[in-house]
Amino acid sequence: MKPPSHDLLKDYAPLTNIDVGALLKIHVAPDVFALWNVWEEESGSETPIPFWAVPWPAALLTAEYLWSHQEIVREKRVLDLGCGSGIVGISASLAGSRKAVCNDIDPIALHVTSLHASVNTARIDLNSTDYIGKAITPSDFDVIFVADLFYERACAETTLQILRNACRSGAQVYVADAERAFVPTTGIRLLAQKTLQVNNELEGKAMRNVRLLQLTDS
CA-to-CA distance for 175 and 194, rounded, in angstroms? Predict the structure, then answer.
């Protein structure tokens, strides 16, 4: 799949400052569907919805909490699972993690994440492992962040089992959720909660209540 060109990003998803306790520059599409249409025209083929051009509320709350509690990532090995545009992984890198890995199975999301890391002078590693689809428990990480991955029942069940295994192996696991249907309801500790504006075209509403949870080993 061909990534969007520099000119396309500049015109349809310009670099935009977002404040998550620190200012980050990321590509944000004011109109996701306009971006999608021109990307398909430029590619000459069908492309997936460019979810990487949206600052998702769960990632924003996670990054904001991270910047207020930098000790949870400082000198730690951090995984941003399903990183999207890389907001959380980049924040972890800038906040002093020993290693920050941004993971996504979407190669375009990883491409855009690398652009964001460069413009924000963050050092990250990119990882395309399909942890969820292959039911692989991430190893060698001290901290795992997951934002907005609990959409579908089957996927959510697999995701939660993988994260529980990681938690029992000693990792600190943080799950951010924006009122999704299959977020875990037990074995969790509420850390933060906030109502945030969301993309109405994608979400079907203007605001969502977002929570950041930490998994316990139960």
Answer: 14
